[in-house]
Write a structure and sequence with these properties.
- There is one protein chain.
- By secondary structure, this protein is an alpha/beta fold.
- The chain folds into three domains: 329 residues, Alpha-Beta Barrel (TIM Barrel); 209 residues, Rossmann fold; 114 residues, Immunoglobulin-like, CATH 2.60.40.
- It has 23 helices and 27 strands.
- A six-stranded mixed sheet has the order 11-16-15-14-12-13, covered by helices on one side.
- Strand 15, helix 22 and strand 16 form a beta-alpha-beta unit.
- Helix 7 packs antiparallel against helix 17 and helix 8 packs parallel to helix 10.
- It starts with a helix and ends with a strand.
Length: 754
């Protein structure tokens, strides 16, 4: 009797210890009961994601969407928003479908929904994780008020080739910084609780390696070693998963010869088994059907590959609903595999609260109060101010003196659409105040001079950028006439501000460029302005690093403003006239020439490292081998001086910690922000190690003349890497610890791990 009692107590304990939390148990029971009522076709229907007609973000549109919704063959839609439209579609579900399962509604909300913030590459230039998380929270608030549940963001792909158009949507070239930004974005969107009506579900993309496309051409192939994947490209995806991301989007490229959308090692072995991801995986736009172009098989074969690899939802291809029933009946796909995918999608809907409230609190009143609210507009301007990077400022050309006669010249001075940049979601460029509008508002009595100077684009291959529908100035006058007018205007001024760069869609998806310098017609204008002998400030609006060797050699000041968003015009004016001090630092290396690409700071050394003293080293013979502007670079209207690096100990044990400290002094005459950067070099390793790796950063504000100590805590964790066995380890040996204002700092101390 005593033995039986012990067994019963042990069994009760085991049940109690393994029992799921009540919320999760309730969800499991609800979904299990629901799935018992679903036919195989209805379960597969949940795996079907279709595009609507509010926006076009891919090569083909879905057809007959509303009928498929009524037939229970759609799990979600995207490119669709507004309270009225979303409520009507959910009404269709509730009144005309058998099981009344609400739809997921998604959209590419990349750097804002209606209120547009600087492009992600610009936001990364703030190095401000608190600000980035705050922006993601504001974006979720606005997007959810407009009927959205799901954003296809953050895009965390590491990229080292600025020819690739989608650099504008990334955080740049660095693994550590990219991982920190990925975590901040996921936290901001989801807030740890998707049941809150002001949250949206994040979708980490593009899994994986999308930013390493050969030649910088979008959608192109990728090939790299596992060691490079684990050390350089995979960490931001994993960081986002650890931060709680609810969904993952596959990439268009192949990995180890297998397209990502059908790659079982990627979607199951790595993502689910190694990282423990329990959300759902969605294909990118038609990437299932595109596996046929890769040469992976016919329609049935690529469908089988993708579902068995671990894909849960098919975006636009519709191969799942067309092929899966027969594949299940033929035994090529297990029904349990379909059930697992369907369950993950239903779990997401449950966590979003859609089964409790299919409308998720959406109303015209909420939308009116949250969309483009004053706090969001103010945040947009703050982000723009902090993202702008001062690249050059000879003889203190900037800030400008408003009492002087200033000529603003260029096709982007009065352009609204370009300020929003690519991937601008539902942002309305007609609501944007241009740089010229901001000037006239702020300096109402000042008679600034203006000339267009050039067309925005004259290259016939990209002439579509200049159509009036997109807010670009149309002027049929010959280029020579525009330049002559600009020169005449410039002659009347004390100083010239040339506002040049890229149209909004010269970067972004499907916008790769072989030439990443200023277009020939704009450069001709700039050279004509240089011939006037007047001081020139070049204001750049662009979505990628550019080749600016001539500009750096000949122009007095260069201000990188990127595509700054809804309040960008006002932010640029505040920076130009010194009402704000630039503090941004670039997160991608700027090459001198496209011939240097790929160029990035954390490269490996060769057996013949670069040297000017020997012919037989890694270099080009026709160009300076250094970057034009290195990773982490950016100037201020004040100056900062760094002391030598001081270590609390010259040795570090396996379980210990060492502090690295510098004193930073603002030696200028105005308050400024400095981004203090910590880099580490592993001098000897079982695999070759990069010449430097970012391992920490702090953003500080110093008044004129103020000094402050900045301390970093270094543990063995910061010295770890993946070895040839893909084990995460640190190895005893010597390390260099660098602290400075950009990646080229040589301010260092030596540390030994024992």
């Amino acid at each position: 009797m005593k033995r039986i009692l012990i067994v019963l107590i042990a069994a009760a304990c085991l049940t109690a210890c393994t029992k799921k939390p009540s919320k999760e148990a309730d969800m499991d029971k609800f979904i299990t009961d629901l799935m018992r009522q679903m036919t195989l076709e209805e379960r597969i229907g949940q795996m079907n994601l279709l595009t609507m007609w509010f926006d076009v973000t891919g090569p083909r549109m879905s057809k007959g969407v509303e009928k498929k919704v009524r037939d229970g063959l759609v799990g979600g839609v995207f490119n669709f928003w507004t309270p009225n439209a979303v409520r009507k579609l959910q009404d269709t579900i509730l009144t005309q479908t058998r099981l009344k399962i609400p739809l997921l509604v998604g959209y590419d909300v990349i750097h804002g929904h209606r209120t547009i913030y600087p492009i992600p590459l610009a936001l990364a230039s703030t190095w401000d994780m608190e600000l980035i998380e705050q922006i993601a929270t504001a974006v979720a608030d606005e997007a959810s008020a407009d009927g959205l549940h799901w954003t296809f963001s953050p895009m965390v792909d590491i990229v080292r080739d600025p020819r690739w158009g989608r650099v504008s949507d990334t955080a740049g070239e660095d693994t550590f910084l990219g991982s920190e930004i990925a975590k901040a974005m996921v936290r901001g969107y989801e807030q740890g609780d998707l049941s809150k009506q002001n949250t949206i579900m994040s979708c980490v993309k593009h899994f994986a390696l999308y930013g390493a496309a050969e030649g910088g051409r979008d959608y192109n192939t990728v090939d790299m070693s596992r060691i490079r994947m684990y050390n350089e490209y995979l960490p931001p995806y994993e960081a986002a998963v650890r931060a709680g991301a609810s969904s993952i989007m596959t990439s268009f490229n192949e990995i180890d010869g297998v397209p990502a959308t059908g790659n079982r090692w990627l979607l199951t072995d790595l993502l689910r088994e190694q990282w423990g991801f329990d959300g759902f995986v969605v294909a990118d736009y038609t990437s299932v059907s595109e596996m046929e172009n890769h040469g992976s098989g016919d329609k049935a074969k690529v469908t089988e590959m993708s579902i068995n690899a671990g894909l849960d939802m098919d975006m636009v291809s519709e191969y799942m609903i067309e092929e899966l029933p027969a594949l299940v009946r033929a035994g090529r796909v297990k029904e349990s595999t379909v059930n697992a995918a369907c369950r993950r999608i239903l779990e997401a809907k449950y966590k979003l609260g859609l089964f409790t409230d299919p409308y998720r609190g959406v109303s015209d009143e909420r939308a009116k109060s949250q969309i483009m609210s004053e706090d969001k507009l103010a945040l947009s301007k703050e982000a723009a101010l902090k993202s702008i990077v001062l690249l050059k400022n000879n003889r203190k050309t900037l800030p400008l003196d408003a009492s002087k006669k200033i000529a603003f010249i260029g096709p982007l001075v009065k352009n609204q659409r370009t300020l929003l940049g690519s991937s601008a979601a539902a942002g309305n460029w007609k609501q944007v105040k241009t740089l010229w509008d901001a000037l006239e508002s702020k300096y109402a009595n000042n008679k600034f001079l203006y000339a267009q100077g050039s067309h925005l684009v004259e290259n016939k291959l990209i002439q579509r950028m200049t159509d009036q529908q997109n807010g670009n100035v149309i002027d049929d006058r010959p280029a020579k006439q525009l330049i002559a007018e600009a020169v005449q205007t410039a002659e009347k001024a004390d100083i010239i501000v040339a506002v040049l760069g890229e149209a909004y869609d010269m970067s972004g998806e499907a916008a790769s460029m072989s030439n990443i310098g200023l277009l020939d017609n704009q450069k001709a204008l700039l050279k004509a302005l240089k011939d006037t002998g007047k001081p020139i400030v070049l204001v750049l609006m662009n979505g990628r690093p550019m080749t600016l060797q001539w500009e750096n050699d000949n122009i007095d000041a260069i201000l990188e403003t990127w595509h700054t968003g809804t309040r960008g015009g006002e932010a640029i004016v505040d920076i130009l006239f010194g009402d704000a001090n630039p503090s941004g630092k670039i997160t991608m290396t700027f090459p001198r020439s496209a011939g240097q690409i790929p160029i990035y700071y954390n490269h490996k050394n060769s057996g013949r490292p670069f040297s000017n003293d020997s012919k037989f080293t890694v270099k080009y013979i026709d160009i300076d081998n250094s970057p034009l502007y290195p990773f982490g670079y950016g100037l201020s209207y004040t100056q900062f001086e760094y002391s030598d690096v001081q270590l609390s100990d010259s040795t570090l044990t396996g379980k210990g910690a060492v502090t690295a400290t510098v004193t930073i002094t603002n030696t200028g005459d105005r308050t400024g922000e400095e981004i203090v950067q910590l880099y580490i070099r592993d001098l000897v390793g079982s695999i070759t190690r990069p010449v430097k790796e970012l391992k920490g950063f702090q953003k500080i504000t110093l008044n004129a003349g103020e000094s402050r100590e900045v301390t970093f805590h270094i543990t063995p964790e910061a010295l770890k890497f993946y070895n040839t066995d893909l084990k995460w380890i640190s190895e005893p040996g010597d390390f260099l610890i660098f602290i400075g204002g950009n990646s080229e700092t040589n301010n260092r101390a030596k540390l030994t791990l024992i």
